[in-house]
Amino acid sequence: MTKVIAFANNKGGSGKSTTCANVGYALALNGHKVLLLDGDMQLNLSLSFFDEDAVLAMAESEKNLYYAIREQKNLSDYVINTAYDKLDLIPSSTLMSSIEYELFTKWQREFILKKCLSPIIEQGSYDYILIDSPPTLGGWVMNILCASDYLIIPVEASPWGLFGLANMVDFYNEVCNINPDLKLAGLAITKVDERKNYFKQTKETLAGLEDIHVFSSYIRVDSSIEWSQDNSKPVIAYKKSSRSAMEYIALTKEVEEICR
């Protein structure tokens, strides 16, 4: 049965796209068939697998998530193969910035993405569908969460990393009134510098949250991530022996245990 996992946080720079890309790649390495949806106008998930020219060409074409959602099309027709076995992508567009406007007047607008995804899920072609969300809490992110089985919230271990987390959790609880099957899989701590006191403070704060799981695997600051992004690859594909690659592989094992 296909499991749909959303990566969301209204705080920008929390590592949503990087985490989504690397968890997706690691799941594929583990033998799962994976589909990635780039739901953010910044195109970062798409840029994790294709170079800038290719991503901009996809964004300027009509074969991307924006046009599929605007026209309420079957998403099967928008899937693009990546260079990696068992890993496909539906790219984004810079026009996603206006998706809130496109959804506003639609009937049952909270469920449009779910409707477009349904044919893929019914086909059973994928074990996992991972969705990268923009750093907002509007109707589009509500659409993403209404189409998902699980939510993972990446949290940056920085002085401002926890800013807005309460709003994100409140938003999740609100969406659960519409999609009661949605589960919060957990919080994934990213951009960790163990030399800094605020990492310890972040862990202590998150550990004190009631009934919210925090993944034990966290992602430390690593230049390999920046180099992998520069080369349009997940860090696991770019340098599997790097510290961050091993950490993402460990995080993925935890995700597999929870999201099954």
Structure notes:
With 260 residues, the protein is an alpha/beta fold. The chain has a single domain (3-254), classed as P-loop containing nucleotide triphosphate hydrolases (Rossmann fold, 3-Layer(aba) Sandwich), CATH 3.40.50. It has twelve helices and seven strands. The chain has helices at 16-29, 44-47, 52-60, 65-71, 99-104, 112-123, 139-146, 165-176, 197-207, 223-230, 235-238, 243-258; strands at 3-7, 34-38, 80-81, 87-90, 128-132, 150-156, 183-190. Strands 3-4-2-5-1-6-7 form a seven-stranded mixed β-sheet, sandwiched between helices. A hairpin with a 5-residue loop joins strand 3 (80-81) and strand 4 (87-90). Helix 1 crosses helix 12 (243-258). The model has no long low-confidence stretch (mean pLDDT 94).
Which helices and strands, and how do they pair?
Layout: E1 3-7, H1 16-29, E2 34-38, H2 44-47, H3 52-60, H4 65-71, E3 80-81, E4 87-90, H5 99-104, H6 112-123, E5 128-132, H7 139-146, E6 150-156, H8 165-176, E7 183-190, H9 197-207, H10 223-230, H11 235-238, H12 243-258
Parallel strand pairs: 1-5, 1-6, 2-4, 2-5, 6-7
Antiparallel strand pairs: 3-4
Helix pairs in contact: 1-12
